[in-house]
């Protein structure tokens, strides 16, 4: 298990130098996790590495983060892309941005990587699920 510079452990085991030390904090107070149903479970907060353990990833650190989107509008746009449409996301759940919940890195205008601390239960901080289509 990887420990950050504050001595806190992460929810998933991380490779060396992960999460990155040079991160861009999101400016949004609420971020969104794409999900497939309105019945959110802890598994909905698994990283790509946890979901698809045998897949090859170009960046192991990013593969072990929880991907979040910056707004509901960005979620609605994302699920229309061919790649995301195949994944059948139909809902999004809000997650409050709080630096005490882990390390956050806004790597694209509408995308944030989150490496939650082991002490954080994503279900307990998640808000009310929103339907994206319809």
Descriptive report:
The protein is an alpha+beta fold and 134 residues long. It has a domain at 30-52 and 74-131. It contains five helices and six strands, in the order E-H-H-E-H-H-E-E-E-H-E.
List keywords for this structure.
alpha+beta; 3-stranded antiparallel β-sheet; 19% helix
Average pLDDT taken over every residue: 90
Strand order of the largest sheet: 1-3-6
Report strand %.
Answer: 15-25%
Percentage of residues assigned to helices: 10-25%
Strands, total number = 6
* Secondary-structure class: alpha+beta
Q: Main beta sheet, described? A: 3 strands, antiparallel
List segments where confidence is low: pLDDT < 50 over at least 5 consecutive residues.
Answer: none
H/E element string? EHHEHHEEEHE
